[in-house]
Write a structure and sequence with these properties.
alpha+beta, FAD/NAD(P)-binding domain, D-Amino Acid Oxidase, Chain A, domain 2, nine-stranded mixed beta sheet, six-stranded mixed beta sheet, 12 helices, 21 strands, 26% strand, globular, disordered N terminus, binds flavin-adenine dinucleotide
C-alpha cells in the first residue's frame, strides 16, 4: 500500500478507548488546524477497558497525595461531570460508603479519610454503625466513611459522545485500523495501520492493554510490562438490588491498586457486585476459558511476574480460588451485606485491567508515561483512568506543548 501523506504537524492517537479519545479531543481544542486521527483496531470505540468497567466516577479518595493519580482524579471528576452535562450523558453524584467491617480495619479507614482530606475532597463524614445504616440500611460495619462527591455514569456513552465531538470538529477516527508497525524517519512517524499506511508528526500511544507492545514497536525497551488482571462481576436480581441504595465499598488493601469487591448501582438500572482481580490468561479475554499463548508467554517470560507471585502468593492464589468459587465470592460480598444470598447473584460481565508491573514485582500505582522524541506513550492508566481521562489528556497534551 502506498503511504498516505498527512500534513506536517499532524497528530496520530493509537487507541479509541476513553483516554485516546480524550487526548484526540484535547489536541483538536489546542491546535484546531492540526489534523488529528485516532487509530482503533476494533470496529467501534470503547471495546476494551473503557467499555468493561464499574462506571464509577471516582473523586480521588484512595490515591497518594501529590501523585499524578490524586491530582488528575480530583480535577478529572469535575471535567467529566461537566462533559456529561454538556453532552447529555447520564450521570449522578450519588455518594458512596467505604465500610470497615472489623475494628482492625478502622485505622486503615482513618488513613483513607486523611488521604481524602489531603487530596482536597469535601464533605467526607465518619459514621458509626447506626449512621451508616441510615445511608445503606442493609450494610454492616463498625464504621464507615461517606464520600458524597463520588458518582456513577456510563463510560461507553461518554466515549460515543467524545467520538461524535471529534468527528464534528474535523478529526478522524479510523476503526478496524490496528497499528502494526511504527517507524520514525526525518522526524515523522510512518504508521502501518489497517488497510492503509499513514504518517504523523506526533504520536500518542493510548493502547491500553497493548500499550507496552506499541511502545516496543517504536524501538523502545519495555521496562515495565502490562499484566492483565481480570475483574469479574455478578449482577444482582431485583430482590438483591433492593438491598443496595448506591455504592458500598470495603476498605482496600493499600498494597494493591484494586479496591476490593463492592456494590455499584448502575446508572442505566440494576446493581453490580465485583470486580475481583484475578491474573488473566489473555489480555483481551473476558472469560476464564479465554487463552492467548502470546500473552501467557509474554507474562511468564517476565521476571517481574515471578517476583510478584513470590511476593504475594496468598493473594494471587486466593483471587484464583474466588474466581472459581461462587460461594467464596458470595462470602466476600456478605462481609459488607450479610443479607445477600446465592440466589440473588447472576453471572455478569468482566473487564481486564491493563496493569503495569515493574521489574521488581511491584504493581505500578501511579499513572505513568514515557515521552521520547515526538511520541508520548501512556504506559499505566488503570482506575480511575476513565473518570480522569479528560484531565489525563489535558496533562499529556500540556507536556507536548511544553516540549
Ligand atoms: C474491571 C475494571 C473496572 C474499572 N472501574 C473503573 C471505574 O469504576 N472508574 C474509573 O474511572 N475507571 C475504572 N477502570 C479503569 C478504566 O476503565 C481505565 O482506566 C480506562 O478505561 C483506560 O482507558 P484507555 O483508553 O487507556 O484503555 P482502553 O479502553 O483499553 O482503550 C485502548 C484502546 O486501544 C486499542 N488498541 C490497542 N492496541 C492497538 C493497536 N495496535 N492499534 C490500534 N488500536 C489499538 C484497543 O482496541 C482499545 O480500544 C476500571 C477498569 C477495569 C478493567
Amino acid at each position: 500500500m502506498p503511504a498516505r501523506a498527512t500534513a506536517p504537524g499532524s497528530v496520530a492517537v493509537i487507541g479509541g478507548g476513553i483516554i485516546g479519545l480524550a487526548v484526540a479531543l484535547r489536541c483538536i481544542e489546542t491546535w484546531p488546524a492540526t489534523p488529528v486521527t485516532v487509530f482503533e483496531k476494533e470496529s467501534g470505540v470503547a471495546r476494551h477497558q473503557s467499555g468493561h468497567n464499574s462506571n464509577v466516577l471516582h473523586c480521588g479518595l484512595y490515591y497518594k497525595p501529590g501523585s499524578l493519580k490524586a491530582r488528575l482524579a480530583v480535577t478529572g471528576i469535575r471535567e467529566m461531570v461537566e462533559f456529561c452535562q454538556q453532552h447529555w450523558v447520564p450521570h449522578e453524584r450519588c455518594g458512596k460508603l467505604v465500610v470497615a467491617v472489623t475494628d482492625e480495619e478502622t485505622p486503615r479507614l482513618r488513613e483513607l479519610e486523611a488521604r481524602g482530606i489531603a487530596n482536597g475532597l469535601s464533605g467526607l463524614r465518619w459514621l458509626g454503625p447506626e449512621a451508616l445504616r441510615e445511608i445503606e440500611p442493609h450494610a454492616r460495619g463498625v464504621a464507615a466513611l461517606h464520600v458524597p462527591e463520588e458518582g456513577i455514569t456510563h463510560f461507553p456513552s461518554v466515549c460515543e459522545a467524545m467520538a461524535a465531538e471529534i468527528r464534528r470538529r474535523g478529526g478522524e477516527i479510523r476503526l478496524s485500523a490496528e497499528v502494526r508497525g511504527l517507524r520514525e524517519t526525518d522526524g515523522c512517524w510512518r504508521i502501518q495501520a489497517g488497510e492503509a499506511d499513514a504518517s504523523a508528526a506526533f504520536l500518542f500511544n493510548c493502547a491500553g492493554l497493548q500499550c507496552d507492545r506499541v511502545l516496543a514497536q517504536t524501538g523502545l525497551r519495555r521496562n515495565s510490562r502490562i499484566v492483565p488482571f481480570r475483574g469479574e462481576y455478578f449482577e444482582l436480581s431485583d430482590e438483591g438490588a433492593g438491598l443496595v441504595r448506591n455504592l458500598i465499598y470495603p476498605v482496600p488493601d493499600p498494597k494493591f491498586p484494586f479496591l476490593g469487591v463492592h456494590f455499584t448501582r448502575m446508572i442505566l438500572g440494576g446493581v453490580e457486585a465485583g470486580p475481583n482481580a484475578v491474573l488473566a490468561t489473555a489480555r483481551e479475554g473476558y472469560t476464564a476459558r479465554d487463552f492467548a499463548a502470546r500473552d501467557l508467554l509474554d507474562a511468564f517470560s517476565y521476571p517481574g511476574l515471578w517476583r510478584f507471585l513470590a511476593k504475594y502468593p496468598r493473594m494471587s492464589a486466593y483471587e484464583l480460588y474466588r474466581s472459581l468459587s461462587r460461594a467464596e465470592f458470595l462470602r466476600s460480598l456478605q462481609r459488607l451485606l450479610p443479607e445477600i444470598e446465592e440466589r440473588h447473584l447472576r453471572k455478569g460481565m468482566a473487564g481486564v485491567r491493563a496493569q503495569a508491573l515493574a521489574p521488581d514485582g511491584t504493581l505500578v500505582q501511579d499513572f505513568d508515561y514515557v515521552l521520547r522524541s515526538n511520541a508520548l506513550h501512556l504506559i499505566n492508566a488503570p482506575s480511575p483512568g476513565a473518570t480522569a481521562s479528560l484531565a489525563i489528556a489535558r496533562h499529556l497534551v500540556g507536556l507536548l506543548r511544553e516540549n
